[in-house]
Amino acid sequence: MQLPNISVILPVRNEEKYIAACVESIFAQDYPAEKMEVIFVDGCSEDRTVEILRAMCAEHPQIVVLENPNRTVPYAMNIGIAHSRAEIIVRLDAHAEYPPNYIRLSVETLLTKDCDNAGGVCETRGRGFMGGAIAAMLSTPLGVGNSSFRIANEDKYVDTVPFGCWRRELFDRIGGFDERMTRNQDNELNHRIRKNGGKVYMNHNIKVIYYCRDTIPGIMKMGFQNGTWNVITMVLVPGSMGVRHFVPLAFVLSTLGLLLLTLLTGSWLFGGLLLLEWGAYLLLDVFYAYTIAKEIGWAAFPVEVILYPLFHFAYGFGSLRGITRLPEFLKREKEKRQGQKESKA
Prior knowledge:
Helix content is about 55%, strand content about 15%.
């Protein structure tokens, strides 16, 4: 296959510790370097990220560094796409590692399959004992539900993939990334692709290694933020989020609701339902903690038993926070649109 010219786009911000290794991994790909332009879109880094990138331009003249005054990922992607020159766009992330065939397989899959976005499987890893325990949790169905790109081992059409590889004309046809989406911008874009008759294809041979948070406060913060943005995204873009994204919210609401009804009524019915729900949950919790401990060591067993409910409750309470934030968020978006209309008038 004749490989086309491609534009690799990476949103970055404060990546001083990782950016040099990221650049080297890109140019260690088996894709011809002369057919790549590598666009880093910096979101106002406060460290040496841009300085390091500019220094590496001497060795890798394919590097382009752009500024993103709005800082967030969707703005960065739209800036990168607008400045790109190639017919194929590949998005990467500085916090991940890519096997040497990642870019080539992504492009080949896009060009040989009936799809508008091609991606692969995200293998979650962690650093240190706690990072490894968290990564193991996020690699199980109890941790991530039926998220195909985290647990699948076959090629198939899916609702979303990590990062992505697209023909540039797609963005001319359906528009760029939704700049309202501080998170979930990939879910929104893939929803729009499918809504416009397109397809998203996952090739399980395309691997990306993602390093998760390696502390309990870190993973709880991530869960809380994801839960918040899932609710906002669901309201802004109906249909873009799956049922699995709101299971933690349902779990938290049912737990609090049954507990409150038990205390108010003194009824064994509500108390029994609460015990039944938590009994089933703890059985799953212990089962998956046991399967993980068999693989990575028995010291992980008590950690996993605690990690699952902490993560799920952080996620569920994040969704509750998203519900309370909705009026404020929607008001701000309305004022922003009104300001844009007035500036154009």
